[in-house]
Amino acid sequence: IDVAGNNLVSGLGVTLSYNRNLVDQDFIAYDGYALSMNYELVGDLLGGEHDFQRATLEVNRQHSFPKRPN
C-alpha cells in the first residue's frame, strides 16, 4: 500500500457504553465496572482513500482492597 504523502481517511463510528462505577467524594473509583463497544467504518464509500473496519471491546473492573488495621 502506498501511503506516503497526503492521504484522505474518512469514516463513521458508533460507541455504546455502560458504566456502573462507584466513586467517593473525590471522584476516585472504589468499586464497579464499565463496558464499552466501538465500531468504525472507514472507506471509499465515505470519500476516503483507504478501506478498513475496526471493532473494539473494553471492559474494566474496580475493587478496593480492605484497609489494613492499625
How far apart are the termini? 63 Å
Mean pLDDT: 85
Give the C-alpha Rg.
20 Å
Order of helices and strands: EEEE
Write up what this structure looks like:
It is a single chain. By secondary structure, this protein is an all-beta fold. It contains no helices and four strands. The protein has strands at 11-19, 22-23, 29-42, 52-63. Strands 1, 2, 3 and 4 form a four-stranded antiparallel β-sheet that branches. Strand 2 (22-23) and strand 3 (29-42) form a beta hairpin. It is elongated, with a radius of gyration of 20 Å. 0% of the residues are buried. The model has no long low-confidence stretch (mean pLDDT 85).
Essential attributes:
single chain, 70 residues, mainly beta, 53% strand
Fold blueprint:
Blueprint: E1 11-19, E2 22-23, E3 29-42, E4 52-63
Antiparallel strand pairs: 1-3, 2-3, 3-4
Gist of the model:
The protein is elongated and about 55 Å long. It has strands spanning 11-19, 22-23, 29-42, 52-63.
